[in-house]
Amino acid sequence: MTDPVHPFGDPGANVVRGGKALYGAPLGILMLEARFARVYGEMGHAGTWPFPVVYRIVRGASPDRVVCDGARGLLDDFIAAASDLIDLGAEAITTNCGFLSIYQTQLASAVSVPVATSSMMQVPWVQATLPPGKRPGIVTINAAALTEAHLKGINVPLDTPVAGTEGGTEFFRTIIKAEKQDLDLSLACADVVAASQRLVRENPEVGAIVLECTNMSPYSAAVQAATGLPVYDIYSMVTWFHAGLRPRNFAAGA
Question: Rounded to whole angstroms, how far apart are CA atoms 217 and 210?
């Protein structure tokens, strides 16, 4: 009499390791506390990602407090939230505000998994791709609030050209100042494109653009079309970051 065939083949080769509360979503995202519309294509819209993610809202961490007030007094809250995500099963941590680069070193030192706080971490990578005489520039939601500490925290050159959207009509007012919850996509896009065009106009050596704000990625294609330059954003960084957590298994023929 033959032994019954196990439905998954050899039982010993199909043991799944336990120890987590959640499975299938290795990337944890720390979210600011806000109520403006989350647009498909930006970080806070779960449908943006081609893989599952786990979110954790950091209570009290409003965009205004993080961006305009330098996230003062919030480090412990972000460390606690990151630890919660890791306890649930996250294998890496990122954030939905580029200004949290100011805490990159502290967060990475406080937890046991890789941490990527800001899309601006791509600036040195992009620099390596550009021809001599060209360099990346940054478009941020608030140029006045982007300090040396934010750049030093992620090894971005302090003389990197920067342009902000704080003079616009929609993006800054809705995302940072929370003047309203609804978002006019056309006006927001126009604000981001205008800042990008100003960056290039005032800094002709700019050969690529890095969008600091995680709410800007829905407008990356419009920025690229308007400037003719490569554009990097939170989507390009996070998809790269996740690729290291779950490399494609070419041996499986997928």
Answer: 10
Give dist(CA 75, CA 139) in Å, integer.
Answer: 25
Domains and CATH numbers, the chain: 27-118+238-245 (3.40.50.1860), 119-233 (3.40.50.1860)
Distance between CA atoms of residues 10 and 211, nearest Å: 49
- For position 1, what pLDDT does the model report? 46
CA angle 153, 67, 53 (to 5 degrees): 75
Strands (E), the chain: 27-31, 53-57, 92-95, 115-116, 135-140, 162-164, 206-211, 231-232
Residue pair 242/235 in contact (Cβ under 8 Å)? The answer is no
Closest CA to 113 of 88, 134, 133: 88
pLDDT digits (tens, 9 = 90+) for 50-89: 999 999 999 999 999 999 999 999 999 999 999 999 999 9
Ramachandran angles phi, psi of 137, nearest 5°:
-125, 160
Q: Which two tokens stand for residue 241?
A: 């970051």
Backbone Cα Rg of the chain: 20
CB-count burial class (<10 Å; 0-12, 13-18, 19+) for 68: middle
In 3D, which of 235, 237, 240, 241 has the Cα closest to residue 91?
Answer: 241
